[in-house]
Amino acid sequence: MPLGAWIEPHPEGIYVPAADVWIDPSQPKPRALVTHGHSDHARGGHGAVWATPETLAIMDARYGAQAAHPVRYGESMRMGDVEVSFVPAGHVLGSAQIVLEHRGERVVVSGDYKRRSDPTCAPFEPQACDIFITEATFGLPVFVHPETGDEIDKLLAALRANPDRCVLVGAYALGKAQRVIAELRQRGHDDPIYLHGAMQRLCELYVEHGVALGDLRLATGVPKAEIAGHIVLAPPGALNDRWSRRLPDPITAMASGWMRIRQRAVQRNVELPLILSDHADWDELTSTILEIAPQEVWVTHGREDALIHWCMTRQIKARALDLRGYEDEDD
């Protein structure tokens, strides 16, 4: 019998018949294991959800209450004939890799992950396994992310050089915004940071779960003179809309791994691209596979071809899984 024959990839997610449960399904299912709270992995409408307490809190805030079963990192549970555990993925608050053990085989569904230090979430923990199911969002050799501190320093330098303006940073509301804030605090930036209203609830949720974010204030209705010389965070869609025109001559920035592609920055009218990603880059994807040393690698989404070719040249069996509904969420 082929390795992993008890795992069934479907367009809408991964089904594990021996546990009668789906992993990150894009459609409502009776039973779901969820790796993290981004909308391309989590959604409302499931009959029952197993996830970390933090992910369940995020899902409750974004998609409404569900029949929730919290699973803490390192905790193991039996679902049918499968042993299931959750370990940190290092992607966003509460993000987890799901470890499945059945028939003497060990399968790790990594969800989205990164290997860089992040003050807002637990770091990725490599897990030895027979099959490693990995993302490939930045699965091309051109994607090598710069040092986080260098990008934050670029942001602070722009702020210091333009005391009569503000720096408006587009950042995804879950994970990226809180990471930018926490990284700024680690660099000694203790000034108030202003927020678009869409950022408020998730920032409060992070604080409720022990992530210190410092002095945060809503930007709406605040005089321009008060916001000048400060950093403002907003969803990417608000960078060039009517809301942003109320700010004092903003320097438009965007925090995303896609800022490596100059055309993306130009399309969004971004003056200050910040290459800051919550996904592993090419070097991190390949070094993680070498570290884990699985017999097989299954690639769920992203730039599958290059990563599969890289695996094959190293005698690692690899295949692409045709899953629908996975997006980068403005990473």
TrEMBL record:
For this protein, the record's InterPro entries field holds: MBL, RibonucZ/Hydroxyglut_hydro, Xnuc_lig_assoc
Cite the GO molecular-function annotations of the record.
RNA endonuclease activity
Cited PANTHER family:
BLL1145 PROTEIN, CLEAVAGE AND POLYADENYLATION SPECIFICITY FACTOR FAMILY MEMBER
Q: What is this protein called?
A: Metallo-beta-lactamase domain-containing protein
Origin species, per record, is: Sphingomonas changbaiensis NBRC 104936
